[in-house]
Amino acid sequence: MDQLEKVKEKYADHIVKIQDLYGDQDPSFLFYFLTEQFSYLLDDDPEKALSKTGTQIRKLLYPFIRLVGPLFLTNPQVIEDRNFLQGILSEDKGITLPKEPVIWASNHRLQDGLATLLAASRQGYLLVGNLPQFYNTLDSIPSWINGIILINRNQKQSRISSLEKCKKAIDYGSDVIMFPEGIINKTPHLLSLHLFPGVYKIAKEKNVKIVPIVHYQESFAHHKNIIRHIVVDDPIDVSSMSEKEALTYLRDVYAYWYYLMMEKYGRSTREKELHGFSSFVEAWENQLKNRPVNRCDSEVDRRSDYISHSEKDQMQAWEDLSLLDISPSNAFLFSNVEDAKKYGLYRFQRRF
Question: Of 184, 214, 180, whose CA–CA distance to 110 is shortest?
């Protein structure tokens, strides 16, 4: 039995296919070592994936991560003065954290893991759904030292157990860091994607607050001189909110601060964006195709945004219409032929 078959057998209960672990790229030289050492992280039993002793040790190591972490940032980052963004003259005094654990809930733009760890002011277990980034790169070691909860997005049971692991981390006295959008926002028009309800369910059950973290940097810029701007906002108490109210409010917080940072620091112009392109659609496609990416499973990434049941029904209707050849006998089905045929073209989130 070759090495890959041994890994497949070892992870049989936790993967759908072996590519769940290494994604689009071939297994790296670290892959076999990492899959040997860290298989327990995908165990559905929270008691096997986390420990109270491990949490205590990680809290002691967190100052070291805060010290060396900035050396590995792709872009320098600045925690924003919220009053400055809002045109208020007084200085922002920052947020007041409860002594109890919190959920740091960040929007998701590009390479936000380390940036969010550093923006949070306390150790927290990082909830990660990109298995190839963990099992197929060096990122795994600092992530493990900090504390990580893995999800195989291809498996329903793994998605369910990841929430139980987050609750267990809170029981052990640790914060949790998560990205409720579930996937990088690749749309050209939404300031925030719809949010997965897990962040609310955990906060509600464990009676902990949600601390929003909002990232902004121009487009998909990857140059060292491009600054990542970050707002850390006041903790949100969702104990008296319904799921819809809480998720709508959190999404509004993301959109509010993202828009203010975009207005303050956005430097691009329509003329610049359209240079060499016939339309904004074409220009945005080029941005997405050429954006810097980590190791990933693109098949999983393309379908990992949250879609409500009502939106799924609408999507299915448009997709079905887009496959039809229009004729006099079925033309009455189309209120707008162009919308039906171009539906797939504008679904940026699921095309890239």
Answer: 184
Q: Tell me which H or E stretch contains 143.
A: helix 140-146
Taking the C-alpha atoms of residue 69 and residue 223, their distance in angstroms, rounded to an integer, is 18
| Same domain flag for 205 and 281 | no
DSSP classification of residue 331:
G
Q: Are 21 and 7 in contact (CB under 8 A)?
A: yes
Residue with tokens 């195709």: 289
Please name which of 75, 85, 86, 67 lies closest in space to residue 115, comparing C-alpha atoms: 75
Domain boundary among 235, 265, 295: 265
Same-domain status, 60 and 176: yes
Give average pLDDT by consecutive 10-residue segment, the chain, 352 residues.
87 92 89 94 95 95 91 89 96 95 92 88 94 89 93 93 97 97 86 94 98 86 75 98 97 97 86 80 80 72 73 57 68 57 63 73
Q: What is the domain count for the chain?
A: 2
Alpha carbon distance 51, 44 (integer Å) = 14
Q: Are strands 209-216 and 228-232 parallel, antiparallel or unpaired?
A: antiparallel
